[in-house]
Design a protein that fits this description.
Layout (H helix, E strand, L loop, with lengths): L5 E8 L2 E6 L4 E5 H6 L27 E7 L3 E6 L7 E3 H7 L26
Antiparallel strand pairs: 1-2, 2-3, 4-5, 5-6
The structure holds zinc ion (2 copies).
The site of one zinc ion has 7 residues, from loops.
């Protein structure tokens, strides 16, 4: 059971958000990584719980437009692809922590050429 709360949300850059937890842990979250794991009904199938976004479908260049605190339990992000329906509860965010301690092997950056708009030429 996780009781840790964010004590500080640091907007390092539009592409990265650091979260300082009440137990002293710090997670540094890339925007594309959080966006790809958006827990909203559009991104996760409500019946199967299966994620609809394929890994790598979010561009590494995706940016955080805004982040706000929701009540005392979640963060709300607005992303540069205009998606903003996901509520990231503290417990969920903590479970996503991509630091080497929480995610052995670390994160793989998606290919920068895969963009939400797509750029196919006929
Ligand atoms: Zn979503
Ligand atoms: Zn961690």
């Amino acid at each position: 059971m996780l009781n840790s709360m964010p004590t500080k949300i640091k907007r390092v850059s539009p592409a990265r958000t650091d979260i300082y937890w009440s137990d002293g842990h710090v997670g540094s979250y890339p925007s594309w990584y959080l966006r790809e794991r958006c827990p909203c009904a559009e991104c996760v199938d409500e019946f199967t719980g299966k994620r609809k976004l394929a890994p790598g479908s979010i561009a590494a260049s995706l940016e955080r437009v805004d982040v706000t605190l929701v009540g005392n339990y979640a963060l709300h992000f607005t992303w540069s692809d205009n998606h903003s329906t996901g509520l990231y509860t503290f417990g969920y965010l903590r479970s996503l922590c991509p630091c080497p301690e929480c995610l052995p092997g670390g994160l793989k950056e998606p290919s920068p050429r895969v963009g939400p708009e797509g750029s196919f030429e006929a």
